[in-house]
Amino acid sequence: MKQTAMRKFCLSALAFTMLSMALTATAQKSKATDAPNYSKTQNWARLPEKISKVYDVFYVHPTTYMSSEDGTNASLSNKKVNAATDQTVERQATVFEPTCNIFAPRYRQASIKVLGMSKQKRDDYLSVGVIDMHKAFTYYMKHYNKGRPFILASHSQGSNVTLNFLRKYRSLINADRLIAVYMIGWTVTKEDLEKIKLPLAETADQTGAIIIWNTIGKNGKSPVLSKDALCVNPLNWKTDHSNQPKSKNIYARILLKNGKYLKIPHFTSAQIGDNGGLIIPAPSIINKLMMEMGPEVYHGYDYDFFYGNLVENAKVRCKAWQKKNSTSK
């Protein structure tokens, strides 16, 4: 009798546990059912106070949700996450500020913890961001863009979201108004380019093309750098594997551990490696950097290390777009 009672108790406990897990999963999933309302300004990390530039940038931020307090996908009302997102916009999207009006939506990003999941589970959670980007981009085009040429820009998870958005909704992108796509900090392959029907950028002034790199050291093992990754070297904006000297690095603008920015001219050389990574030597300020992804993985600094080059290149590509379209009319 005691064994029977114990068996019933265990089965009941198991059933309760499974029910709790199911309810938890449902609760987490329910947070990701309704896409954000992008008519509300709080669902944008950055909107221009006034339209002062001829060009726009639609920027999709990287992972800033480092916990799982909201479930696997972040809530857009999480103040801590939103503050981290706003700081990231300041770090990265401002490379386009001298040239473009910045539009940066918040989205229900997946937690950093999904990197340790199986590809199927990871893709399920990352797909929520694609839903949100679709809604944000269509709202932007209808209410904000007003026919201006635009850049798509992103980093890390934002680049994964942008890549999958382009795979699924390529028809929404007006090729005549697309200046360039800076899809930095994620693996993009030749097969991806064939699917989204956009070329890899081969020159500094090429328009309508993809720019991509993942910054690592010689022995760095980045979780976002996979087989057959493509790369553009931001020191010469080409895809050859020649080493480019640090004299071509206009300046780095690096957020340090103490929260302050450090501007360093001619910060680093860079060379495209056989694995598709953008390989740099160990930075002289390595002890001041935040290395969350392990030794020689400079993923968090993909924009920072080449900040000045990005500022200048955005200007170059916008001018090239303008010249191309003024002469074709």
Task: Give an overview in words.
The chain is α/β, with parallel strands linked by helices and 329 residues long. It has a single domain (36-327), classed as Rossmann fold (3-Layer(aba) Sandwich), CATH 3.40.50. Helices cover 34% and strands 14% of the residues. The protein has 6 helices and 11 strands. The strands form 3 sheets. A 6-stranded mixed β-sheet has the order 1-3-2-4-5-6, sandwiched between helices. Strands 7-11-10 form a 3-stranded mixed β-sheet, with no helix packed on it. A two-stranded antiparallel sheet has the order 8-9. Strand 10 and strand 11 (278-279) form a beta hairpin. The longest helix is centred in the first third of the chain and has 29 residues, at 2-30. It is globular and about 45 Å long. The chain starts with a helix and ends with a helix. The relative contact order is 0.11.
Quick recap:
By secondary structure, the protein is α/β, with parallel strands linked by helices. Helices cover 34% and strands 14% of the residues. The protein has helices at residues 2-30, 79-92, 119-145, 157-169, 190-196, 307-327; strands at residues 44-46, 55-60, 100-105, 150-155, 178-184, 210-211, 215-216, 251-255, 261-265, 271-272, 278-279.
How are the SSEs ordered, and which strands pair?
Blueprint: H1 2-30, E1 44-46, E2 55-60, H2 79-92, E3 100-105, H3 119-145, E4 150-155, H4 157-169, E5 178-184, H5 190-196, E6 210-211, E7 215-216, E8 251-255, E9 261-265, E10 271-272, E11 278-279, H6 307-327
Parallel strand pairs: 2-3, 2-4, 4-5, 5-6, 7-11
Antiparallel strand pairs: 1-3, 8-9, 10-11
Helix pairs in contact: 3-4
